[in-house]
Design brief:
Blueprint (H helix, E strand, L loop, with lengths): L2 E4 L9 E7 L6 E2 L4 E6 L4 E5 L4 E6 L6 E3 L3 E6 L50 H10 L17 H6 L10 H9 L18 H11 L15 H16 L2 E9 L1 H12 L6 H15 L5 E4 L2 E4 L5 E3 L1 E3 L2 E3 L2 E2 L7 H16 L13 E5 L18 E15 L2 E15 L5 H16 L6
Parallel strand pairs: 12-16, 16-17
Antiparallel strand pairs: 1-8, 2-4, 2-7, 3-6, 4-5, 6-8, 9-18, 10-11, 12-15, 13-14, 17-18
Amino acid sequence: MAEIIIMPKQGLQMTEGVITQWFINEGESVSEGAELFEMETDKLTICIPAPVGGTLLKIIHGSGDTVPITEPIAIVGDKGEDISGLIEGFTEQGELEISVPQVAEEVNPESITTAPLTQKTTSGYASPRAKTSAEQRGIDYREVAGSGPDGFVIERDILEAKLPEQVKATPLAKKLAELDTVDLGAVSGTGSYGKITAADIRAAALKRVKGAEVRGDTLIPLTGMRKTVATRMKDSLNEMAQANHRITADMTEAVRLRESLKKAGHKVSYNDIVLRCTAKALTEFPMMNSSWSGGGIIQKKYVNMGVAVALDDGLIVPVIKDADLLTLPEIAACSAELAAKAKENKLAPDEYTGGTFTVSNLGMFDIDGFTAIINPPEAGIIAVGKLAKQPVIVDNEIAIRPLMQLSLTYDHRVLDGAPAAQFLRRVKELLENPGLLI
């Protein structure tokens, strides 16, 4: 029996998703649990498995479509099954019916005739799929005679329309061509229907200057993740009273601990040690493990440690749940697994939500220290710099010790400077005396 596949909700705050590609074509079979399509949310790109097995009878929303959650996107059933009853309310192109102004009565589909494509009298209205196809083919849909009610343009009209003779190029390609003074008429397009892409313009510009670097501006389209990171960080600074403390920890004993664990077969990073020490300190300073709300301060009775992971097009913070109850090797294993999932876009919503405090480490990039922005609704974040050997005074003598800079950013609405400083000092004490973790 045929079933309608809907846009799934991935996370509590998700309202819509973008279908980036279908792995199965119409008419092909798919097994339950096999990858059906790929979607992009405001946080990540994820592959969605088929909830049922069968034949993909209809794709209602194609690649590039932005679809609200729970809206139908496809139909799966038995091969040859009649799905006319299920797609009632959709056009023959699989599009949602859109009400058009001045249409006062139902129109019998059999009475609709296709107007000659040379006719220029149109409604100025088109379905989302028609608009997408028009853009891909370099056609102005407003100049196409629609076969729908009152000249409403559907995808079929676009596909049957004569391609314009002008050069077809993406908006970004046109912008780059203008910036780099590239003649669009002399460029061969590699995109769909021969459309010129930004890559084609860059290649033409490089060829023109014989390998020299092209100077000019490049517009990088924003992804859902990049937009979300930008919005959340700006809101964080605008809505919180963020203050900062810095401290330097002598990592001599932490280095010894790591070497001992390594000999015992446990792969533990310095960041894992920071996570473990921070989790313990949070149990001793519960106000640091809190968040601000309109009705008061919410104090968490659990420690969920966020670990900032940099991706090619943004940032995501996987969460180690109940980190205060885990051993150092257990934290190391969880951290490695979550980081790998994050880089492969395989995190489940539960694995990047619910954090109570975050650690962000840029030491691997040779950064001495930095100030991080709080990840709402948490009340604090520790920024970790590189571990480096430096000269220090120990017992009135110069010694070389491995030092690491820690920077705490905290919400001054939740706690004041003194308790925040005490918390950061406690993290330092635990790093310098890791035996206290037992």
